[in-house]
Amino acid sequence: MTQFVEQDAACAGTNRCGGHSGAPITGLVQLMGQIDGLPAPLIYRKGWALLGYLAMESNRMHSRAALAALLWPTLGETSALTNLRQVLSNLNRFCCMALGADVLRIERSAVGLMRGSEPMFDIDLLRLAPCQSVYLLAEQRVFMDGMEDIADSNFQSWLEATRQMLEAQLMGAAERCCDEMLETSRWEPAIQLARALSQRDPWNEAHARRVMRAHAGSGMRTAALKVYQRFESLLRSELGLNPGKETRQLLEQIGGTVLNWESGLRSPGYETAHTLA
After folding, report:
1. Taking every pair of C-alpha atoms in the chain, what is the biggest distance, in angstroms?
2. Domains, the chain, ranges and CATH?
3. Which of 1, 64, 72, 152 could in theory staple to 80 by disulfide, Cβ–Cβ 3.0 to 4.6 A?
4. How far apart are CA 42 and CA 132, in angstroms?
């Protein structure tokens, strides 16, 4: 995966969020996903890990001693601070190129990543443009993937907690976006996004219902019924449960009659679907 997308006019102060146009936001540093080579001019993996940490903990200063202890826990303070100084020098060159001057603030005893309201990283889309962040879900990306071995349990604990927080934000953003697609009859993108949600959390009934609604809305009623059948089988075989009342009611609506999906009213006169086993 590419960690840095070619910069646009952001460093000149252009708002990359693009208002509400829905156009893809480019020029963002990609922190979600597996690295396949550090973006130039970075040469240290711990520099990449430090960037992720500072991006999540931005707009405040962190003591050099604390950062050194976080990333080099087995070294003495002097050696750890020396390593941090080398990493910061290299990271500063990257930040000047990718993020703009003065974003990475380096002082004698503290370091911080200072930024305004414009998005700089892919993770910013979760807050600023949720529907533009859903590709992260579809591509199954994980924050700072591959950085688990960068330090000891303190960094690993922070990384795991951060991933859980971002995962919750991503799922929430995708759910809201998918529901909006369903409400506005954008069936094809709704199918893709609902499937991605269901793959991420296959036992979630709300996700299964989204997939069913999207298929039914696009006219693929048989596909919607098969989604229910697979979901029912999954719940029974792995959890010993049956689908809940709301999911069964949706099955009846799809199988016994066709919904007018825009108004939520039933349209009578359609044949009853075959009973599922």
Report:
1. 80
2. 9-172 (1.10.10.10), 184-267 (1.25.40.10)
3. 72
4. 27
Q: What is the mean pLDDT of the chain?
A: 84
Cα separation values, 258 from 99, 146, 208, Å: 52, 47, 18
Cα–Cα distance list, 130 to 7, 34, 169 (Å):
21, 22, 9
pLDDT of residue 138 exceeding 90: no
Partners of residue 4 on adjacent β-strands: 29
Predicted pLDDT of residue 25: 54
CA 70 to CA 151: how far, in whole Å? 7
* H-helix segments, the chain: 45-56, 64-71, 77-98, 125-128, 135-138, 153-183, 187-200, 205-217, 221-234, 245-256
Residue carrying structure tokens 């919750």: 168
Per residue in 5-20, pLDDT tens?
333 222 333 332 233 3
Give the pLDDT confidence score for residue 119 in this predicted structure.
93
What is the radius of gyration, based on Cα positions, of the chain? 23
Q: Which residues pair with 259 in a beta bridge?
A: 266
Question: Average pLDDT in the 98-103 region?
Answer: 94
Provide the 3-class DSSP secondary structure of residue 105: strand
- 3-state SS, 235-261, equals HHHHHCCCCCHHHHHHHHHHHHCEEEC
Tell me whether the omega of the peptide bond preceding residue 41 falls within 30 degrees of 0, making it cis: yes
Contact 13, 19 (CB under 8 A): no
- pTM of full prediction above 0.70: yes
The pLDDT tens digits for 229-268 are 999 999 999 999 999 999 999 999 998 544 443 344 333 3
Q: For the chain, what percent of residues have pLDDT higher than 70?
A: 83
